[in-house]
Amino acid sequence: MKFVDEARVxxxxxxxxxxxxxxxxxxxVPYGGPDGGDGGHGGSVYLQAAVGINTLADFRVERxxxxxxxxPGSGRDCTGATGHDLHIPVPVGTVVRDAETRxxxxxxxxxxxxxxxARGGKGGWGNARFKSSTNRAPRQFGPGLPxxxxxxxxxxxxxxxxxxxxxxxAGKSTLIRAMSAARPKVADYPFTTLHPHLGxxxxxxHRSFVMADIPGLIEGAAEGAGLGIRFLRHLQRTRLLLxxxxxxxxxxxAEPVAAVRAIRGxxxxxxxxxxxxxxxxxLNKRDxxxxxxxEQRAREIMRRLRFRGRHFLISAATGEGTKDLGEAAMRFLExxxxxxxxxxxxxxxxxxxxxxx
Length: 357
Prior knowledge:
6-stranded mixed β-sheet; Rossmann fold; Spo0b-associated Gtp-binding Protein, Chain: A; 5-stranded mixed β-sheet; 14 strands; alpha/beta; 357 residues; rod-shaped
């Protein structure tokens, strides 16, 4: 199924049922009073985060989703039936906005979480409600209120603990294949991933985290060049970024230092919050160079960048160094979880890049 991370949908809550105008007609009751019942309330529309849905493809063509209206009231003070609510399943991680006002209505980040997006109309009063000492035979009734209607903008931001970023062909897809059960396409010729992939990285018993691989960025992505701008939002929920760098690029324009600076600039243009996230350098493809030359090149890259964050020298193709990378990422996430539980401020240690050249 095609990956879709933006969609529009129109929702219409059910209208309230009409109130009834009725009078008692019983033997031996010559002056039966009003007994018209109220109309039933209209059904409401909810969005519900559901496990197993990974895209917004079901909404790629604008749809109209309507809840059931309430039924009219009837005699003998019978209230009309309430319309059934409509629950629309969406992926976990969906942000919901009103298309007209641009107001954010909610952010569904937990499975089973629901969001009311259109409230059903109230049922109208029957004539029994208008009875009084001076109005003993009322013929008034309520028509029922209309249900709310909205056009919604849905935006999917995948939920992942660790996000991979870098230029196309840096080895991100190979890395997520090496560390998890995700199977994005890889090949021995240049191409880039077209949509995000998620993988669960297991580093021990009951110790795992979710990793996201997004399409490769190119310079100018924040202005709309390439595919990256569409998917940078998927890194906004991550807690750690792994910046994958090709240690031995075939393309001279992808020289490691220039590549790091270009991607860092695109992050800053897109979002200050994203640029401030902890980011580690993952120097990939060490298997393509002699061991001593690979280590020397890594030291030279770190020196030129003046990078004070953590870095790892790995080979995603052979798996060398990936176990240590996964264990380090797991410890980082566990430490952040403990700090959050005790209300401590996030540590500003060597995990955050600061003052990189």
